[in-house]
Amino acid sequence: MSRLILRCGKMYDGINDDIIENVDILIESERIAKVGQNLSEESSVTVKDLSDLTVTPGMIDAHVHFNTFEWEKRNHEMLYCSPAWHGMAVLFNAERALRRGFTSIRVCGSHVYDAYSSIDAKKLIGQGYFPGSDLVIAPFYTGAVGGMADASRNVSGNPKLAKSLADSYPGIGEGRDFFISSVREQAKMGGDFIKVMANGGFMSVTGGPEDVQLSDEEYEAIITTAHQIGIPVTAHTYCDDTIRLLVNLGIDGIEHGSLIKPETASLMEEKGTYLVPTMMQYDDIVNMDEESLSKREPKEFRDKLRSYGQRITEGREVIKSSKIKLGYGSDICDQYPCYECGREYKSWLNSGFDPFRALRAATSSNADILGLKEVGRIAPGCRANISAWSRDVLVDPEALMKCDFVMKDGVEYRTEE
Description:
By secondary structure, this protein is α/β, with parallel strands linked by helices. Helix content is 34%, strand content 21%. It contains 13 helices and 16 strands. Strands 3-2-1-4-14-15-16 form a seven-stranded mixed β-sheet, with no helix packed on it. A six-stranded parallel β-sheet has the order 9-8-10-11-12-13. The chain has a three-stranded parallel β-sheet with strand order 5-6-7. Helix 2 (83-98) crosses helix 3 (117-126). The protein is globular and about 70 Å long. The two termini are 32 Å apart.
């Protein structure tokens, strides 16, 4: 059995709102055996000096889209590349996320039809054939024909092609019976959770963030069916009314939630519904960065951000002042590679969130959201998923963009900026 001591200059354990100095972590094989000061050095123990770094649990991103390689070619890859291509994109992006200190990732569905290759990518990483972050997968978006989940909108000028694409997509349909069947199929194929597109979006050419995409009966069918077979449900939603409806229907979580109001935040606190706010996508309008905003595509995205800017800013303040269980999710779909998960941290710190709340969101809270009990914490018995950073994680908004050490299951990997 291999034994290793990590000698930490500073450590955040993912549990307590505190940075502890001069701590040792004893790792035996793939697990943390002991955490304490001045652990004894035996001849059989290797020592790794991390005394110049801040050591944390391996970071977790709860909202990514890994099924394409390059954000500039995202729409092309979605429509014209094979299921195998999309599966290999997941492997590629998972490896690069790992090398940046993110040891677990939740893939929140995709517009692409990948023949469940994202599930295969998860299995291949888990079985050790490829290096990469551990994956938790929603195989597809679940939603309405013509809605946010339906990538065939991009070829609506060719009705026959658009219909053929929509008909082939396991998550796109209508009616209670369709969605019961869709949820069961995704679970059967190995899906870990269901992602329903409940509202329209900001980035789409058509529709908007307050569009309601499904009927109350369809929402209820998705949530009830998933819970009957033991998997959680989260929803892409911005609109306060839709968030409230879904929370009252018993949904497990909400993604984005940018237009939330205080009363609905209180309801989420009461029900224990988590929120992954994915804030970096809306920083341009919150911070009124016209230079950056002018580069966002398509034009409709810019127009909607400007139209909703004040309400997005107000919603962020509601989220910050709430006691909702928050998860950390980057949701990078444009401007940057999707594996640069550390970029979201800047939004949290620059928006005035307590850094410990942000760190907890990216560690133990996200571990709970992903249903992973043995990660997100530095404690005896947990898997040795550990990252370390040279920048000050409490004050530097860019701190999670430079990982200096990363380990998953006791194995150290080369890092990348």
